[in-house]
Amino acid sequence: MTARTHDAFAFASLITVAAFFPPESLNLATLLVSIVGADIGALIPDMDGAGNRLWDLLPAGDKMGKILRRIFYKHRTLTHSIIGVVAIYKLLEWVLVRLLNPGFLDEKIVLAAIMIGYLSHLLADSLTEEGVPFLFPLRINFGIPPIKKWRIKTGRWFENFVIYPAVWIYLIWFINTKSDVLTKIIRLVNS
Fold first, then answer.
1. Helix 164-177 and helix 3-20: axis angle, to 10°?
2. What pLDDT is recorded for position 137?
């Protein structure tokens, strides 16, 4: 999937999870950082590629991306596996507690948002021809649907003109359907 499709999937996933598991409290800073965090989380699995947008956000990111690309065996390996999910979760859990001020931001909500973005990326990639190596280092890729020929080719017309708009249509429908719950979440910010 392309970065813009991953961004849309991450935002739709964040809204969906928030509607089904609304936070007990929420401030504006946590809300905004969580939205950005979900987007960043959606970029993390592709950090094994030097051309990832995440590297563009960091100082000297292009050079760092080229170095780290050599560390990873190839694209869609460790960062697209269960081991990668657990490792990133543990790393972020450790870093965010030390980086974020708990009086200003709820690090648990931010961590959840980043991981929602991360997992949405893996779900979206499972719809592509390549699938996802959840059991890396085993060379078995999983995809939806199981028949590879029925999956999406990344960056082609079906992704651009069907999948990407479908995510936004879903999001509009979902927000309309769950507007009562989502309104309560927004009211938490104002209280």
1. 20
2. 87
Cβ neighbours, 10 Å, residue 139? 8
Cβ-based neighbour number of residue 180 at 10 Å: 8
Whether residue 24 is predicted with pLDDT greater than 80 in this model: the reply is yes
Residue 48 has what pLDDT?
Answer: 72
Give residues with Cβ within 8 angstroms of 184, minimum separation 6: 22
Report how far residue 61's alpha carbon sits from residue 53's, in angstroms, rounded to the nearest whole number: 9
Local confidence band at 11 (pLDDT 50, 70, 90 cut-offs): very high
What are the extents of the domains in the chain?
3-190
Token representation of residue 146 = 């199981």
d(CA 114, CA 109): 9
Q: Which residue has the tokens 């760092």?
A: 64
For 85, phi then psi, to 5°, come to: -60, -50
Give the model confidence (pLDDT) of 84-121 as tens digits: 999 999 999 999 988 888 889 999 999 999 999 999 99
- Label residue 25 left, alpha or beta by phi (over 0 means left) and psi (-120 to 50 means alpha): beta
